[in-house]
Amino acid sequence: MNLSCQIATGVSLLTILSGLPSYAQSPLPLSQVESEILPLSPGERDTPVSPEAIEGRSTQPLTLEQAVDLAEQNNRLLQIARLQVEVLKTIQQEAESTLLPRVVLGANLTYERLPVGEFLERQLGNALGDLRNTIDQRVEDLVPPQFRPLAEREINLLNSFADRALTDIINRAGLTSIGRSANLPFSATAAVVYDPDIWGARTAVVQSAELEVQAGKLEVERQREDLRLLVTTEYYNLQEADALVRITESALANALAVLADAQALQSAGVGTQLDVRRIQVLVANIRQGLEVALTFQTNSRRRLVQRLGLPLTMDVTAADPVEIAGTWDLPLAESIDAALRNRQELDELRLQQEVNQRQEQLVRAGTLPQLSLFASYSVVNVLNAPFNPGFVDGYAVGGTLLWELYDGGATRSRVARTQLNQEILTSQLAEVESEIWLQVEEIYNDLQATATNIETAAVNVSEAEEVLRQSRLGFNAGVVTQLEVTTAQTNLTDAETNLVRSILDYNRALAALQRSVNLPVGIPVY
Fold first, then answer.
1. Domain 30-36+58-105+197-517: which topology?
2. Which of 61, 105, 177, 358 is deepest in the core (most CB within 10 A)?
3. What is the mean pLDDT of the chain?
4. 75 near 230, Cβ under 8 Å?
């Protein structure tokens, strides 16, 4: 079980940044986004990357909802998990088929030419010759020589009659030319076989397959919610990067304006070179911070593109403004109870316990008598028999009983193994429940702390704005130094940055708490 994954819930409440960055255009409808954004095909992945493909990347603004939907559509691991559920369903169907009778149809047509037939025919020929010799000898013994010419015709008729009689017997037996021609026997059988599930062994297999399908569906949901949390977190990272760029650009513009004023005062002989240099240092520091913010922004965009399964030749921006994603109204105790009821990891372990119980039932059934019933009907015909009597039929009905009285202790060992596995699963369930409890409690405390930080940061921004306004007024009146103005400007930039980070830290904690309680990430909770 992957307990590092966390669940989240969000709502729109307080917008704290006025306006969006210049590149955050109004988002397209999801259907239009889907038509323009597709995952890479294998052929596209094999294409060498050109500098033009990187420099000419198209940029697509996305809302958080669109980003989550695209990730669910394109994520290959989630697709594999869904296909694995379909595989488990086919296994369940196969297990269910064992509870039904089996109907078997069979037919056999054989072309036979056996050397034993030639041997048998020769034996019959020799017997026929011996019979004729015996008849001739008896005639010689019974008919005196002087009467033989008179009886020659009757003797020939007697020999001819014996030949025909023996030949007719051979023909009727199908032995006329058994060695020189082939036989063509045909047989067909229909049978019904049924093994009664007396002790519930196959029922246990079917129930185990059903439980495995349920566990597979839970795994799909777990991966889906994990993916939603990852996408939501990376979207908030991109929002933070965009906001930092906007704040730093605004600070740079203000610093450049202050620098221009300081240079003008120096030219008029009112200001000093030291004031100008101080502002120049501030401008250089802000520009350095802007480069860091731009790099963070670029890397955040690329990570989100990869997470959404989009072509790496395109870019994305955050279309949603930075705002509080929602509130969490459940107290800590109810949050923990909800997590212990809803988490897929716990349900999967409970299902595995049930599967283990079915396996123990199956193992125990193997030591009991096994009964099998059958009924069959058969027909036989030799198609090329000289005097073919047609088809002859027959049937059989019966049953078999098998009882393995002693297997050397194998069944006892298998039962002991299932019982030990049950104890292991029980310990794992208790451990996972403990981890979930601690996880929810930690995230809940983080959420409360970040909510307090937002209030403090918002107050600091208001105070920093007022200090900067008064400093500029005092500077224009000549009662405040340029250093105080630049310090006020730096404090305002820091306060705005802290406010953005506090809000996004709160949103991340809210999303993680939603995932921990197993509520859909991104759905408002009030």
1. Outer membrane efflux proteins (OEP) (1.20.1600)
2. 358
3. 80
4. no
